[in-house]
Design a protein that fits this description.
The protein is mainly alpha-helical. The protein folds into two domains: 54 residues, lambda repressor-like DNA-binding domains (434 Repressor (Amino-terminal Domain)); 58 residues, no CATH class. Helices cover 53% and strands 0% of the residues. The chain is elongated, with a radius of gyration of 15 Å. The model has no long low-confidence stretch (mean pLDDT 88).
Length: 128
């Protein structure tokens, strides 16, 4: 995630820098540094931001089909998938250890490279 994306998410959530700092459990100085591009946005902050956006993207709480149905995952892949195990099919991108495309990613960056192209993630992150 870059500083432009970070600022866009903060604007989408309608939060001040102070409010965003409180939501993310970081200092206002950290928020300012992220937005100016002086500091790399940590993975846990990126993850939390995407989670918050996912909750505002569906304010009515409409039932989103689970990722494994949308992506037609084969049954053998689902046996070891934490998204299915914990019934988080709308938050598959949030859960580490998911086996999208048949393999588990060894880092958050690699997982998110794939998620950023995925229909499930893109549906929830419209405009991000």
């Amino acid at each position: 995630m870059d500083n432009i994306q970070f600022k866009g998410i903060r604007a989408r959530l309608g939060k001040t820098q102070k409010q965003m700092a409180q939501l993310l459990g970081v200092s206002i100085k950290a928020i300012h540094s992220y937005e100016q591009g002086w500091r790399k946005i940590p993975h846990h902050v990126e993850r939390q931001l995407f989670f918050l956006v996912s909750r505002v993207s569906n304010p009515e709480g409409d039932q989103i089909p689970p990722c494994w149905e949308i992506l037609n995952c084969p049954e053998d892949r689902l046996e070891n998938c934490p998204a299915r195990e914990f019934n988080t099919g709308d938050l598959c991108w949030f859960i580490n250890g998911t086996c999208c495309n048949g393999h588990v990613h060894d880092s958050w960056e690699k997982k998110m490279e794939e998620c950023r192209r995925c229909e499930v993630f893109l549906t929830q992150m419209k405009g991000v």
